[in-house]
Specification:
The complex is a heterotrimer of chains A (279), B (345) and C (475).
Chain A: H1 21-26, E1 36-42, H2 48-56, E2 60-64, E3 71-79, E4 82-88, H3 100-111, E5 116-122, H4 126-139, E6 143-148, H5 150-155, E7 159-160, H6 162-169, E8 173-175, H7 184-196, H8 211-227, H9 234-242, H10 246-253, H11 268-276
Parallel strand pairs in A: 1-4, 1-5, 5-6, 6-8
Antiparallel strand pairs in A: 2-3, 3-4
Helix pairs in contact in A: 8-9
Chain B: H1 6-22, H2 28-56, H3 63-69, H4 74-86, E1 90-93, E2 96-99, H5 101-124, H6 129-142, H7 145-154, E3 180-181, E4 190-196, H8 201-209, E5 217-223, E6 227-232, E7 235-240, H9 241-244, E8 247-251, E9 274-280, H10 286-294, E10 302-308, E11 315-319, E12 322-326, H11 328-331, E13 334-339
Antiparallel strand pairs in B: 1-2, 3-8, 4-5, 4-8, 5-6, 6-7, 9-10, 9-13, 10-11, 11-12
Chain C: H1 9-23, H2 27-46, E1 47-48, H3 56-64, H4 70-114, H5 119-157, H6 159-173, H7 180-189, H8 191-197, H9 204-213, H10 223-234, H11 240-271, E2 283-284, H12 293-328, E3 330-331, E4 334-335, H13 336-350, H14 355-363, H15 371-383, H16 399-408, H17 413-424, H18 430-440, H19 443-474
Antiparallel strand pairs in C: 3-4
Helix pairs in contact in C: 4-5, 5-12, 7-8, 8-18, 9-11, 9-19, 10-11, 10-16, 10-17, 13-14, 14-15, 15-16, 17-19, 18-19
Classes of the chains: A alpha/beta (279), B alpha+beta (345), C mainly alpha (475).
Chain lengths: 279, 345, 475
């Protein structure tokens, strides 16, 4: 994140933005004049909107997701001379079900490939929140966990070993108290580091699956990787195919998954194909 | 008083009425004609379905059986069967009607639509069990093969309908059901309910009322000429033989028998008490089931009842540190094993 | 391991299908269980410490959900919210009216004439569009700017989910969701906001029910009509010292009637057309958090108040032009308005109203706030009274004057009661209809939500009128 670094538009560079501008555009998120796309995910009632407000200040506007009656807020901030666009995703408990909220959040992270996904976590309900975190980490390795409501945890007498959590999850973990602004500087710095892509993370993969399911997942993901070597989340795609997820099945049939790789971002052909997909 | 506006108003009414009646694609007149045309198709499909079932049950499909099953006069049944024979959907084999390959495929297509629709009703809508069959009976004639495929995709390709019947695949393949009726099952063995016959509706309603579902474990304790006694999830049932005969089971090897599974439901906990989830009843379906699992209500989860609402019904439960309100009828779907009370509060 | 050959997408799908059969059981549930097992192992390692003996959250919950205190506390809090809204809104409302209508209106009219604007253009632009918009703003803005922030504060504190929790049993009996209590409450401020507030109900069937019945919550735009009619017609029936109480009682009864109708409609809808919609109850009770007052006021003003106000203004301007046109265009020797009123009269008489009222309700579809000014204007027009107000929206300063004018226009006690009932139950305003369409995305549900209250209103007024006339004849 130094001055000489500018996101270039050449393909396959280590530190380039990975977001899919064309797909984001379809969702009404215009990335022109912005360097990085940051998605804000989390359970309901985790103080996610407070984090959003703190990150973006008054530079925000709200509307609906295209064709949906789900509120969307987007805003931005500047850090180290780069512009970060922040998109607030609907608060969800999971990404596995089929509610509209979950579909929006899932599609945004999977197809929009934001440069950073910040998962806001209510630290007093860590276990339930980790359900969502673990699912997101299967989709993207460019994630930052924002351990929010540290003040409430203290009030309830809870001690949180956030370093050990970072080790377990394999991605940066930042404790914050959004209400008082504590930890937000650190959060912004961490977002910047992850967005630059300089450090490669290898996030936690779900381990405690039944042996039959695990071996099926392994077999299937080998083939998915063969087909799409650049796909960052073959195992997750395999998981969704076994679960019979209609949207992912469709994405596989229509080749949408083929575009999901940093290298393909700026190839005009890929963008054209993506644009021609029915919404 | 006649106003200057009366005449244009009347003209508008007349035009609207004419449009409603004779609109090119969905006018009432055209619809009425389509209904007449469709009625024949429905009878044909129903007849094929009947032949299929009768054949599978080693019965003797005939004109009489068609007339009885479809509640048609014998003359009309004869006419229907002759159409079926003309179109090479079935042939006579002695005094039995036998489906040809194409007739079989047509019957399976209807069956696929029917069972998919039942699955859809169970998972995606709020209709109650006793309505599924009748609604699916109507939908099976309306869904085209590609509609059925789309529906199957939308439902994540289910393999069984909510009664435990296998859903034929698009190419007409279907899992074989080896289940036996409860009336022939061994005493003191563990079984799993795999299928509840949904016809006749009156008997199915009794099974629903007894809160039996496919996937439930059971153990027979006594069987006489008149009735069958058995345990499920800590409840003892006794059903008359003709009702129990509509329950189909498979042996289920398990050290714990159905009798050992504790009887407590989450709804039985008093504020301050804790329990560990054993199972979510199969009656908790679709959106509701997924929601509960997303909130972390899974086998092994420890749940504590916290407080009751001022209105007396929803109760707030502490589930993985979050406070979640559940209604009594939801909490009854969760079987739990009670835990010792912790002394921390 | 040797590299396997690359499969095509459709071969992959077939493979997934086969594997699905091999694994058997419910894959989705295996997955969720696996994820949660990981989650709880990690959480157990990371979180340590004992919860303190005294837990403030639990203490507050014990109080606000207790069988004895829960409901009284709720009633007290909401009464307070409504009291602050109503008493607090009066002053800015009068102030806005005196500026926008008392000062600016005559001033710009004068300027317009002095620069030689044709009379009809002045009529459409100033008497029509400007005046109706000014009216809507001065009646609507102050209560909303007070009500919404107060409501949002309760929401941020964490109290509102507890209200849904306490009232859920009542709503469940009518086939609805406890959170509907909150969207109804919001509806008392503004139905369009109430319809948007149903987004918190995450069960499709119950959300549709809440959207369709939201209009039975008497909104801010309809309170003034209700209060005015109650005071001048019902309060006038009793001795002066009781008048205030009786007219307040009348307003409260009509409001409660709206709540009752909501429950009846909930019950009917959940058992008829909405029977097949999926339904799943879930309600999380979040921890209490001290609300952040400035932030709340800012966002609720921006998100809710400004949004609703903008929509209302967009709809009020063309309506103002339309009202002016019908009152001032003449066909033959009567104005267009009079023709339409004559046409509506026979129908209106059946339900104990008159053509003027019915037509005023049609013109006021964009904003219920302008019903009374429109009725007064049309009455002046048809009753042939000379003086101010002909062809222009206006309101009389004195209640006695209003009473006199309405009586001249043929109003009786029955007309007033029927108008109150019709105010409670008629089609939603255009802002709300538009919002319902946006929220449901369906013409069918929008039509039902529009026509159902209208049907109920016509039914109520028709029934009352027939019974009233029978009793009158018998006496």
């Amino acid at each position: 994140m130094t001055a000489e670094f500018k996101p270039a538009s050449t393909a396959a560079c280590e530190t380039c933005p990975v977001h899919q501008s064309a797909y984001l555009m379809k969702l009404g998120v215009d990335m022109q004049n912005w360097d990085y796309a940051v998605a804000l995910a989390g359970n309901p009632n985790t103080g996610k909107s407070t984090i959003f407000n703190a990150l973006t200040g008054l530079k925000q506007h709200t509307g609906n997701w295209p064709g949906k009656t789900v509120t969307r807020a987007e805003g931005g901030f500047e850090h180290a001379g780069l512009n970060f666009k922040v998109v607030d995703l609907p608060g969800t408990y999971s990404l596995l079900s089929t509610t509209v909220d979950e579909e929006i959040a899932r599609d945004f992270i999977l197809f929009g490939q934001p440069d950073v996904t910040v998962v806001v976590v209510d630290v007093t309900r860590l276990e339930r929140n980790l359900n969502l975190v673990l699912q997101i980490l299967e989709i993207t390795d460019r994630a930052v966990i924002c351990l929010n409501l540290m003040d409430e945890a203290a009030r309830h007498g809870l001690k949180i070993a956030h370093r050990s959590l970072a080790r377990d999850l394999g991605v940066p973990v930042v404790p914050t108290t959004a209400r008082s602004g504590e930890g937000l500087d650190h959060l912004v710095r961490t977002i910047g580091e992850v967005a630059s892509g300089k450090i490669k993370y290898s996030p936690h993969r779900i381990q405690n699956l039944s042996p039959a399911l695990t071996s099926a997942l392994d077999r299937l993901s080998v083939h998915i990787e063969n087909l799409y070597p650049a796909l960052p989340n073959a195992r997750w795609v395999a998981m969704r195919l076994l679960d019979g997820d209609e949207r992912i099945t469709q994405a596989l049939e229509q080749g949408e998954l083929g575009h999901l790789s940093p290298a393909a971002t700026n190839e005009p052909q890929a963008i054209q194909n993506l644009e021609s997909q029915p919404a | 008083m006649v106003s200057v506006l009366t005449i244009p108003l009347i003209a508008i009414f007349v035009i609207v009425a004419i449009l409603l009646l004779f609109r090119p694609n969905s006018g009432l007149f055209l619809r009425w004609r389509n209904v007449r045309r469709k009625a024949k198709q429905i009878l044909l499909e129903d007849a094929l379905k009947h032949l299929f079932h009768k054949e599978n049950a080693n019965g003797e499909p005939s004109i009489q059986s068609v007339s009885k099953a479809l509640q048609l006069s014998e003359d009309k049944a004869l006419l229907l069967v002759s159409i079926i024979l003309d179109e090479d959907l079935a042939v006579w084999e002695g005094n039995k009607l036998r489906l040809t390959a194409s007739g079989r495929l047509a019957a399976l297509k209807t069956l696929r639509a029917h069972r998919l629709w039942e699955r859809y009703l169970a998972d995606k809508t709020g209709f109650s069990e006793d309505e599924w069959h009748a609604r699916a009976d109507r939908a099976e004639h309306i869904l085209s093969a590609s509609d059925a495929d789309a529906l199957s995709a939308q439902l994540s390709h289910p393999t069984y309908d909510p009664h435990g019947d296998p859903i034929p695949s698009a190419s007409g393949e279907m899992a074989k059901l080896h289940a036996i009726p409860l009336t022939t099952a061994d005493i003191h063995q563990s079984f799993e309910i795999v299928h509840l016959e949904d016809e006749p509706p009156a008997i199915y309603a009794q099974l629903v009322a007894a809160e039996l579902y496919p996937g439930m474990k059971l153990e027979i304790s006594e069987r006489t000429q008149q009735q069958v006694r058995f345990w499920t999830n800590g409840d003892e049932h006794h059903l008359p033989t003709h009702v129990a005969g509509n329950i189909y089971v498979l042996p289920f090897p398990d050290k714990r028998t159905a009798r050992d599974i504790p009887k407590l439901r989450l709804a039985d906990l008093k504020p301050g008490q804790r329990g560990k989830v054993v199972a979510l009843s199969p009656a908790c379906r679709g959106l509701e089931r997924r929601r509960m699992m997303d909130l972390g209500i899974l086998p092994g989860t420890v749940i504590r009842a916290e407080f009751v609402s001022a209105g007396g019904d929803p109760v707030a439960y502490r589930i993985r540190e979050a406070l979640i309100a559940l209604r009594q009828e939801q909490a009854r779907l969760i079987t739990i094993q009670p835990l010792e009370e912790k002394n921390d509060s | 391991m040797e590299k396997e050959k690359t499969l095509t997408p459709s071969e992959l799908l077939t493979m997934a299908e086969d594997l699905r059969w091999q694994i058997g059981g419910n894959i989705h549930e295996h997955l969720v269980e696996g994820i949660y097992t990981d989650a709880s192992r990690i959480a157990d390692r990371v979180v340590t410490g004992e919860r303190p003996k005294f837990d403030l959250d639990r203490a507050i919950d014990r109080l606000v959900t207790s069988r004895v205190w829960g409901i009284p506390i709720m009633i007290l809090l909401f009464t307070l919210v409504f009291w602050i809204t109503i008493s607090g809104a009066n002053i800015p409302s009068d102030f806005l009216a005196s500026i926008l209508i008392g000062k600016i209106y005559p001033a710009i009219k004068e300027i317009a004439f002095s620069i030689g604007t044709p009379w009809w253009l002045v009529g459409i632009l100033i008497d029509g569009m400007y005046l109706s918009t000014a009216w809507v703003i001065s009646v609507m803005l102050p209560p909303m700017a007070i009500f919404f922030p107060l409501f949002t504060l309760l929401e941020d504190f964490g109290y509102l989910p507890r209200v849904a929790f306490n009232l859920d049993n009542l709503f469940k009996k009518s086939g609805a969701h406890g959170k509907q209590a909150l969207s109804m409450m919001m509806g008392f401020g503004c139905n369009a906001a109430g319809v948007i507030a149903t987004r918190i109900i995450d069960s499709p069937r119950e959300r549709l029910i809440a959207i369709i019945t939201n209009n039975f919550a008497l909104c801010n735009g309809r309170w003034p009509t209700m209060i005015l009619l109650a005071v001048i017609f019902i309060g006038a029936l009793v001795p002066a010292h009781l008048a205030g109480m009786i007219s307040a009682l009348a307003v409260v009864s009509v409001t409660l009637l709206g709540v009752l109708i909501t429950f009846v409609m909930n019950w009917l809808l959940s058992r008829s057309i909405l029977r097949g919609e999926a339904s799943a109850f879930s309600l999380e009770l979040p921890p209490y958090r001290p609300p952040r007052i400035l932030q709340t006021i800012y966002t609720s003003l921006i998100d809710r108040t400004a949004y609703v106000l903008w929509r209302a203004v967009v709809f009020a301007m063309p309506a103002g032009a339309a009202i002016w046109l019908v009152a001032n265009l003449t066909i033959g020797d009567l104005s267009l308005a009079e023709h339409i009123i004559n046409l509506l009269n026979p129908v209106a008489v059946l339900i104990g109203l008159n053509g003027v009222i019915l037509f005023a309700y049609m013109l006021a579809i964009p904003a219920n706030e302008i019903v009374i000014p429109t009725v007064l204007m049309l009455t002046v027009l048809t009753a042939g009274v000379q003086g101010a107000g002909a062809g222009v929206l206006y309101e009389l300063d004195s209640q006695a004057g209003t009473f006199e004018l309405l009586t001249l226009g043929g109003w009786s006690l029955l007309t007033a009661v029927n108008t109150m009932l019709f105010t409670l139950a008629h089609n939603p305003c255009s802002t709300t209809i538009y919002t319902i369409y946006k929220e449901t995305g369906s013409v069918k549900w929008t039509a039902i939500a529009t026509l159902l209250p209208l049907g109920v209103g016509v039914g109520l007024t028709f029934g009352l009128t027939q019974v009233w006339r029978l009793v009158e004849a018998w006496l």
